[in-house]
Amino acid sequence: MRYPELYILRHGQTMWNAENRMQGELNSPLTEKGLRDAAKQREILAMRDLGDFVFISSPQGRAFQTAGIALAGIADHIRTDDRLREIGVGDWSGRLRDELPMPTNPYQSQYEIAPNGEGFARLKLRCRAFLADLKGPAVLVTHGITSSMIRVLVVGEKAHAERHSHGGQGRVYHLKDGEQFLLE
Predict the structure, then answer these.
(1) pLDDT of amino acid 165
(2) In a 10 Å sphere around its CB, with 0-12 CB exposed, 13-18 middle and 19+ buried, how is residue 80 labelled?
(3) Please, what is the Cα angle at 58 between 54 and 64, to 5 degrees?
(4) Active site residues
(5) What average pLDDT does this structure show over 124-136?
(6) 42 annotated to a ligand binding site
């Protein structure tokens, strides 16, 4: 399937990112670095012609705050869509990653085994539905795992070819004609 041109941003670093905590559906404030991450994304986007783009953010605080900074003076209106929220980690929300069990299967991650979590199959369905509803080019402000899933759906496994395939705070992914470009 062909998708419209996309720019995908991950929210800036949060307190819990810095502490290596699972956030999922919970929120923590952006750090000073997170504020700089969002400002850097704004500098990147300011050099682009985004006149025909819509601007859509996850409604979660860290993403919406990032959107406000990264899209200041660029977007007249930022819409939110719940399908851009981060993968749910259920009972592990707010817990330190180092205190949680690691999967025994090397092809799984903590996100996949989190009790009462969303899992990748449901995340994929949610992201696929979101992409199917897009009518034209868009700038998306989302989260690391959700960004990764959207990028895989749009460009395939080459989305993970970059060293920072988790969605890179302070970076912008440009997806066009089945290709992914990392803008830093």
Answers:
(1) 43
(2) middle
(3) 90
(4) 11, 86
(5) 98
(6) no
10 is in an annotated binding site: yes
- Can you tell me whether residue 140 is helix, strand or coil? strand
pLDDT tens digits, one per residue of 42-68: 999 999 999 999 999 999 999 999 999
Q: How far is CA 71 from CA 57, 63, 90, 113, 165, in A?
A: 10, 12, 31, 35, 23
Residue type at 6 in one-letter notation: L
Q: What is the DSSP letter of 78?
A: -
Block residue for tokens 């995908």: 8
Indicate the fold that domain 6-183 takes in CATH: Rossmann fold (3.40.50)
80 in a known ligand binding site: no
End-to-end CA distance of the chain: 28
Q: How many CB atoms lie within 10 A of CB 61?
A: 15
